[in-house]
Amino acid sequence: MAKRKRPGRPFVEKITDAQRTTLQAIRDFITQHEFPPTMQELGQKLKISGASAHQLVRQLERKGYVSRIPKQARSLKVLREIEQQPASLVSVELLGMVAAGQELWADENRLGEVMVESSLIGRGKHYALRVKGQSMINAGIREGDIVIVRQQPVAESGEIVVASTSKGTTVKRLFMQGDQIELRPENKLFKPILVSEESDLRILGKVIGIRHSAVKEG
């Protein structure tokens, strides 16, 4: 006689560490670029071949974590979040508050530490900043969220960066076209910051991940 299933949460097939890392890489790529990666780009991010990345995506697709349209580039969609499982974590220094929407200087004093999945952290120095303001909400960055940043002095057009200008430090999307440089918000209620020679622009790092705050700040 077959046993009756107990009521409760629906069964969710567990994923491997490699699949978890792949899913996180897809989510982070979409956050940074506003479109999903190709298999080649995903492979480069994971430091594996495009064919290996394709195999991992197919495994995630079978388990219901992502969907895609066969033979169509940039058709990846994340369908659900990763089930909470023990993960390898590393501590990242929390340097201070940063304004997203208001030009407030980021406090360079050490405020503490946050724990981040080791799969997200690569080479180089990383730090975390807590966001204040609503100018990046359409990129999934809200008031009180913590952004994980890879410290680097340069970035490519279209990437989300932590930047310092003569008016302060901010989180914005960097756009460069010819001699024109803009720090653009992801909220139509805010205006882009036009960078000039007097702006004293410095790139302080590239946002590589987001940790959403569970509590809204008043």
From TrEMBL:
EC number(s) per entry: 3.4.21.88
CDD domains: S24_LexA-like
Alphabetized GO MF terms: DNA binding; serine-type endopeptidase activity
Residue ranges of domain Peptidase S24/S26A/S26B/S26C in the record: 94-208
Residue ranges of domain LexA repressor DNA-binding in the record: 13-74
Group of enzyme by EC: hydrolase
Superkingdom to which the source organism belongs: Bacteria
Keywords annotated in UniProt: Autocatalytic cleavage, DNA damage, DNA repair, DNA replication, DNA-binding, Hydrolase, Repressor, SOS response, Transcription, Transcription regulation
Family: Belongs to the peptidase S24 family.
Name of the protein in its database record: LexA repressor
Organism: Anatilimnocola aggregata
